[in-house]
Amino acid sequence: VQAPIELGGLRGSALYIHTESPAPVARLRSMAEARWRYRLEQAVEPSEALEHIFIEKVLTSAEDLFETLTRAGELMARQADNPSRIRLL
Length: 89
Prior knowledge:
This protein has helices at 25-38, 46-51, 62-78, and strands spanning 13-18, 53-57, 86-88. It has three helices and three strands; from the N terminus they run βααβαβ. Helices cover 42% and strands 16% of the residues. The chain has 89 residues and is of the alpha/beta class. It has a three-stranded parallel β-sheet with strand order 2-1-3.
């Protein structure tokens, strides 16, 4: 999703909705670092990759999920003109 278009990516951002605590920041960081280490030609720097990941949590109910998806829709609408807008949910 985050790789440049010329390398087969979408040059976009991602919204990660998680249902367990704590937030998966350490796991996302390790994934970004591994990609950087092993696929240099297609990877985005780990710090840059993490800047383009939005994390939302849904821990309790379907109502929380609905509210999160509503906020996601609003966030995506605000980013409509941004070249790095959310392209993966």
